[in-house]
Design goal:
Blueprint (H helix, E strand, L loop, with lengths): L13 E13 L10 E4 L9 E9 L2 E10 L5 H16 L4 E14 L29 H16 L11 H16 L4 H11 L2 H8 L5 H8 L4 H11 L2
Length: 236
């Protein structure tokens, strides 16, 4: 990671995606292992953007994870409290045991990581700006950007050529700004997006593969006022 990212006067937005998950195993078959829960907002910590997701591994095993999108971190006991609450009050799997635990923090930021590439050094992963700022996801980016680097090398271009897409970084900045200034709106924003857009278009947008026309279809899913205010603060 560039040292400028950690500087006290860093002018860019930094949101933390922080989470803790338990792999739980039930005494009998409980989970539908061909379905998953992506964002469940029925358990909330104060006025924070946070949710639970459930990824079944088998009919009797699943990863249950509680996730925050906030500027600040929380004490470890908060994750345990929310996981217990979700499993006992929402999931209700009966008796279970925790077989594995994971915990992590992923930066979600409009910091210009791509500007720290050089003709001879191309950074990858988080330090190379491969984490999508507004979602914290990077797996598909890593696959696509690795292929792009190979193509650039074969074409005798700078390896990082064409990886950063400025219009998507502008979208990310608006979303991050709302999470920073009005973090409690996280649930509303995601609910609007998934309620008003077909899933395939959302995933295509998050993968930064949409056309400008398709971008407008996604943007129209949201109530405009928070984004207009963010636009005035960050772009105009």
């Amino acid at each position: 990671m560039p040292q400028d990212y950690f500087a006290p006067d860093n002018p860019y937005i930094i949101i933390q995606q922080h989470f803790k998950g338990w792999v739980i195993e039930t005494e009998s078959d409980f989970f539908n292992d061909i379905e998953f829960v992506m964002m469940d907002y029925r358990t909330q910590w104060k006025d924070n953007a946070c949710f639970t997701y459930v990824l079944p591994i088998s009919p009797c095993k699943a990863l249950v994870e509680f996730t925050f999108f906030t500027p600040h971190l929380v004490d470890d006991s908060v994750y345990d409290q929310m996981l217990n609450q979700y499993i006992d009050a929402i999931l209700k799997p009966g008796k279970y045991k925790i077989t594995e635990i994971e915990k992590g923090v992923i930066p979600m930021s409009n910091f210009p990581f791509h500007k720290y590439h050089t003709p001879h050094i191309t950074k990858v992963g988080t330090g190379g700006g491969w984490v999508k700022p507004s979602s914290g996801y990077s797996f598909k980016n890593a696959e696509r950007f690795a292929q792009k680097i190979i193509s650039n090398i074969k074409a005798k271009r700078i390896p990082s050529h064409g990886i950063a897409k400025s219009r998507f970084r502008k979208y990310d900045t608006l979303f991050l700004d709302i999470l920073k200034t009005q973090n409690y709106l996280g649930e509303k924003l995601f609910t609007e997006m998934y309620s008003n857009c077909p899933a395939h278009l959302i995933f295509k947008f998050l993968d930064e593969q949409t056309t400008l026309t398709e971008d407008l279809k996604v943007v129209s899913a949201f109530a405009p006022l928070p984004f207009l205010k963010s636009l005035s603060r960050n772009i105009l």
